[in-house]
Amino acid sequence: MRQPRCPDRRTILEHTLRILDQRSFIAITVFLLSGMIGFFVLYNAMSNQKEDGEALRYAGRQEVLFQSIAAEALRLRGSTSASEQQTSLQTIQNLRAELAEGSTYLTSDIVPVQIATYYANLWHTKTGEAFLFLKTIERALSDPTVPIPQPSPLLDQLDTGAQMYLAHYQGEIHHLEWSIIGVTLVQLLLVAVIYATVLKPMRKTVHQQMRRMQLFSKAVEQSGSMVVVTDANSIISYANQRTIAYSGYQLDELVGQTPRLFQSDKTSPHIYKSLWQTLEKGEVWEGELQNRRKDGSLYWVQATISPIKTEQGVIEGYLSIEHDITIVKQALEENEEVREQLLTAIEAIDDAFALFDKNERLILWNSRCQMIFHGVQDLIRPGITFEELLREGARRGQYSGVDDQEQFVRQRLESFRTAEGEFEIQLANGTWLLGADRKTVDGGRVMLRIDITRIKEVEEALRVAKGQADAANQAKSAFLSSMSHELRTPLNAILGFAQMMQIMPGESLTKQQDKCVNHILKGGQHLLELINEVLDLAKIEAGKVEVSIEPLHLGDLLAECLSLVAGSAQARNISIHTPKTTCIIRADHTRARQVILNLLSNAVKYNSLNGSISITTHLLDDGDRVRLTVSDTGPGIPLEKQGDMFKPFNRLGAETSDIEGTGIGLSITRQLIRLMGGEISFVSVPGTGSAFSLDFLTHTSPGISLPAISDSAPIERLYADLAGTVVCVEDNPANITLLEMIFSSVPRISVSIATSAEDGLEIIGRTLPDLVLMDVNLPGISGFEAVEELRKDPTTSHIPVVAMTANAANNIIPRGLSAGFTSVLIKPIVIPDLMNILANHLQGGRHANDSSASAAE
């Protein structure tokens, strides 16, 4: 790179500077002479001003001094202290000395004659006001009878003198101002002459030359590159600000040094050798160097070094232009590190990973990709397209279940290009893959294939296990249903005959017999409750419990439940305190009664003898729920056992007591209350008692009116009023005997017994009874088939048929009603329930009327 040279321009510039130097010398000499003359003129005027200023100061000071003397004389006369008097006398003497000095100056020939004469009259030794004032002060100090004179008249005369001197001083200042203006005008005139005769002719040429030099200098100084100029021996003669800023060296530290000052041991010696070989040939060298700053830190530069040659081609220096590329080098290094980290991370992925560019060409992949797609691993290379891999894989049979290769390729390509969602695909070797394709910012695609074969195997195992579990659950349900039926059948006889022993008319039990019957009823009822609770728990766990939410009177529910536990509470002498509440809740009537009754029964069973039960209700803060709390005075629950309160079949140690229970009542209660949108909670203090709370949803509809629960009619009245004909279809001998015994207590009811559905249909068709009681599980034709036949026959379709079954499954009642039964009676038979059914269908019936008529005749 040759350095351009301009010898003519340099000659013109040097000649211009020489002429400028000569004329400038003449102009400066003239300017200095005129300046000296003006200086002497102004100096003389300023000297006069200085003297006048001093005199003016003395004139003004005279007034202050006379006032101070008068004030000090008054202080002296009023003082009784010798030391204070001595101090005041000394002060007066000092003030008089200063007055004497000022009067001497003001009456000297330095002061204008008129002003000096004025002050001489004031200080005249016989008639001067100032002289007389001081004399009076002296007499007053020596003679207390002489009053201290007032300085006011004298001060007026002194003020007049000061004003005269001030007017004189202002006139001198005005004169000085005009002198300065005159000298300034002369100087400006000289400057104008010098500018017109010396500077202006040269201004244009010098300005042009200097502008070119400034532009060149600015270009170098403000360059974003580092510029260094050396002589032929590589001694630095110039470095711009960029070089100084980057290297950390000042200019005076660089000039006189060689560029080796910047060298670091990080740059290979071969690079420096190549550099000098190129420069010695007179050629330009370009390359990268890692230099060192003054503080030892390193930086990278892209350097261009050119030899500077004379007209004859002799190298007289070197020009180095360097650009900082540290950030670029660091970015490249970081990119390389990131790339290595990315490759390592991708390789560590257990899934197949591949990166395609915007043209769908393969850029990057991991070894897992080759392992999974082993069928086309020989094709996995940079540049191959996704479509090529896909087509060849389909052709080689890599994928399972591909009937139409073209359609398969088209669908997979569409999914790959859309890059949304996930899909599953199976390879021919049985491997299952979860695929996901995503777009990159630059339009590329990321392909991820996850081996989910193990997950598929687990899913299949879960499916099989679920099938087995469902089968086991169905078997459990069938077993529970069967066990329920098998247990209820003998219980029907036990409880039925025990009830009959208590209510049979005309026969009374001994006290011992009555006690035994009560034990039979109590044990049978407990066994029935156990069966019901086990069935309830099984239904809840199977998710087969349905609730029908409706508005209910909480007070009526409480009354209904309290009537059921009143006898047990009375037997243990337990008092029950109940609230009056008009709250309406939203719940299932049967289940709400069940959960409330469970809490009340527990409060009675686990309470102390002669204890008490308190029932409270209150709205919760949210206003959407009401809390019913049942508190007892029992022994409470140990703290260590409270965490197991709602675990099924856990009686918390009560299993060793004589208190009957199953340990699943509270577990069922919690699940039922939650099904109704509520919650159960408790607080128990050992030795004090327990409080269990049920939270029900409230019903907020205004103006609702619900029917109150009516009392059941006394059973004695039902016995007396019932009349009619009944056909009982039952195959169990014990149940037949129980039914015959029950109906024998009601002589106006005519009962026919059939032991099979076939016999029952024949009797019903022949006698057309008022009511049919039919067992569901009959030999031969079932009760469901029999009632269907009755409903088909117009002559029997109107007859009410009540199903009797020991099956307490959740769907038995809906099934019975849909089959055509009028109602369903669950065994064991509760005699009052049976009497209610008889009363609903026989009282006032056709045969009852006939019997009444016959009796009347």
TrEMBL record:
Q: Which GO terms describe its cellular component?
A: plasma membrane
An example Pfam family from this entry, by short name, is: PAS_7
Give residues where 4-aspartylphosphate occurs. Answer: D775
| Keyword flag Transmembrane | yes
**Where is the Histidine kinase domain positioned along the sequence?**
482-700
Q: Which SMART domains match?
A: HATPase_c, HisKA, PAC, PAS, REC
The family database entries (Gene3D superfamilies) matched by this protein are listed as:
1.10.287.130, 3.40.50.2300, Histidine kinase-like ATPase, C-terminal domain (3.30.565.10), PAS domain (3.30.450.20)
Q: Where is the PAC domain?
A: 285-337
Substrates-to-products reaction catalysed? ATP + protein L-histidine = ADP + protein N-phospho-L-histidine
* Domain PAS span(s) in chain numbering: 212-282
Looking at the record, the residues that make up the Response regulatory domain are 725-842
Per its UniProt record, what InterPro entries does this chain match?
Answer: CheY-like_superfamily (IPR011006), HATPase_C_sf (IPR036890), HATPase_dom (IPR003594), His_kinase_dom (IPR005467), HisK_dim/P_dom (IPR003661), HisK_dim/P_sf (IPR036097), PAC (IPR001610), PAS (IPR000014)
EC nos:
2.7.13.3
Q: Locate the transmembrane regions by residue number.
A: 25-46
Matching PANTHER family, A to Z? OSMOSENSING HISTIDINE PROTEIN KINASE SLN1, TWO-COMPONENT HISTIDINE PROTEIN KINASE
Protein name per Swiss-Prot or TrEMBL: histidine kinase
Q: Which organism is it from?
A: Insolitispirillum peregrinum
